[in-house]
Design goal:
With about 475 residues, the protein is an alpha+beta fold. It contains 17 helices and 9 strands. The protein has a 5-stranded antiparallel beta sheet with strand order 6-5-2-3-9. β2 and β3 form a beta hairpin. The longest helix has 19 residues. The relative contact order is 0.06.
């Protein structure tokens, strides 16, 4: 076939791609296709945003000279800059094809699979056809391959960091950080790539070094802050800089739950939401803290609702703003509604809803919240029948809710039920169980509470015995 192609051109249409997982698991600003046709020249598609389904639609076309090279080298790459690109980005997949393979599908679109990333094979949908030359077929479509130290170090840093994320080999991480530090040294303050260099270094440090070192977390966070300062609201990469800083702040808060970190994270989330186009990968991957990133019908929406509700719940515990706990409850109600009976996560979302309702009751004292706490825990207990691995936790939660209700209303049936539930819980926490001491104390508290109401000596005597056993276990 190649003989028939001599002096001819091939029009190649890059239609779309799917399963475009990034090896480093970093959120890309966009995905593009690179086709190398000569040793110093390549064609680049437009850089398109990755959708929430890890797919991209291009519809870009290039006309290639069949005699420029005996084969094509196609690469799928992730770009981490919307604006000025630093280096060539991270490689998602590389494959070489002969012209015969390209043209073996006639006029029909075909799917081209690449080697797997995290067990999933990225693929492109392409279409190829032979065309006759007409003027300057390649004019304006190709870039010269830039070979400079900054680009080489950046690409090497991305490659080594991707290797580290797969292998967890510390030497790969060290190499990545060394490359990114070298780029930062070559891109000082005032350099147009300074913000990108700061971000790459900070991301590598965030993904590997910080662990529990608070000083290192703060250093990494400061790099993201500097990058964000260089990318104001009208900058194309402003949203990604916001997200990176939010991620660093959340990590900081997970290691030291100080109010200032979660407050700033929540404020930045409010700024980020309007900047994330519907259906983009940034919008969906932000489910850890952002609700609107998963629209109605998205499979991750319940999780997104729950995660954002936790942010609001934490802020309520710090500030006491009723608006935060009201919103947390609203989000958790929706999460429960999206997980009907039989859904594997319904019990978790019910428990979280009860937690928010309990907090609002403690704050406002409205009995309708307490009633719902009890009914919610009762449903969870029904979902955890005898033999369920977390039935003991459900017994404990419902027992405490009923004890609280008795303390406010004095209905004997509530304290009797609470005692019965804690007794069953104790049967699941036999000698040697790590939480037996706590369960003994909980049952003792319930018995002591009933004694204060009914003055039955047997309750007081049993409560004393249980407290003594609990104390003995705690000492050991």
């Amino acid at each position: 076939m190649l003989g028939n192609l001599e002096g001819r051109y091939v029009r190649l249409e890059v239609i779309s791609g799917k399963n475009l997982y990034v090896p480093s698991e970093r959120i890309p600003a966009g995905i593009y296709i690179s086709i190398t046709v000569e040793s110093r020249r390549r064609w680049k598609s437009a850089t398109r945003s990755l959708s929430s389904e890890e797919s991209v639609a291009w519809g870009d076309t290039v006309t290639l000279s069949s005699h420029a090279s005996p084969a094509l080298s196609l690469e799928i790459r992730a770009s981490y800059e919307v604006d000025r690109m630093l280096g060539s980005g991270e490689v998602i997949g590389i494959i070489q094809m002969s012209w015969d393979e390209v043209l073996d599908h006639g006029d029909e679109a075909f799917e081209l699979s690449f080697p797997p990333v995290h067990g999933i094979c990225p693929s492109l949908t392409l279409k190829a056809a032979v065309v006759h030359p007409c003027g300057d077929q390649d004019g304006g479509l190709f870039d010269s391959i830039v070979d400079c130290e900054i680009a080489r170090d950046t690409d090497a840093g991305h490659a080594r960091f991707a290797e580290y994320r797969t292998s967890k080999t510390v030497s790969h991480l060290n190499d990545a950080v060394q490359h990114f530090q070298s780029v930062l040294d070559q891109c000082p303050v005032g350099h147009p790539d300074h913000a990108s260099a700061l971000t790459n270094l900070a991301y590598a440090r965030l993904g590997g070094y910080i662990q529990n070192d608070l000083e290192d977390i703060d250093t990494t966070t400061s790099l993201f802050r500097k990058a964000l300062a260089l990318r104001p609201q009208d900058h194309p990469d402003h949203a990604f800089s916001l997200y990176n800083l939010i991620r660093a702040l959340n990590w900081r808060y997970s290691k030291e739950p100080t109010a200032v970190y979660i407050h700033e994270s929540a404020q930045l989330c409010c700024k980020l939401l309007p900047l994330c186009p519907e259906g983009t990968y940034l919008r969906s991957i932000g489910v850890d803290i952002l609700l609107e990133l998963c629209p109605l019908g998205h499979q991750r929406r319940p999780r997104a609702l729950d995660k954002l509700s936790w942010v609001l719940f934490e802020r309520f515990t710090q500030r006491g703003s009723i608006d935060d706990i009201d919103e947390s409850i609203r989000l958790r109600r929706e999460a429960v509604s999206l997980c009907p009976e039989g859904h594997a996560d319904r019990d978790d979302y019910l428990n979280n809803l009860a937690c928010s309702l309990q907090s609002r009751f403690n704050h406002q004292g409205q009995y309708r919240d307490l009633n719902e706490v009890i009914s919610t825990h009762e449903e969870v207990l029904r979902l955890h029948p005898v033999g369920h691995e977390t039935r003991d936790i459900s017994l404990d939660h419902l027992g405490f809710a009923l004890l609280t209700c008795f303390n406010h209303r004095g209905v004997i049936d509530d304290i009797n039920r609470a005692i019965s539930l804690h007794r069953e819980e104790l049967t699941l926490h036999l000698s040697g169980h790590p939480r037996r001491d706590t369960t003994l104390a909980n049952l003792a508290l319930a018995l002591d509470t009933r004694y204060e109401k009914l003055h039955v000596d047997e309750d007081l005597n049993e409560a004393i015995d249980l407290y003594r056993e609990s104390l003995r276990l705690k000492r050991h």
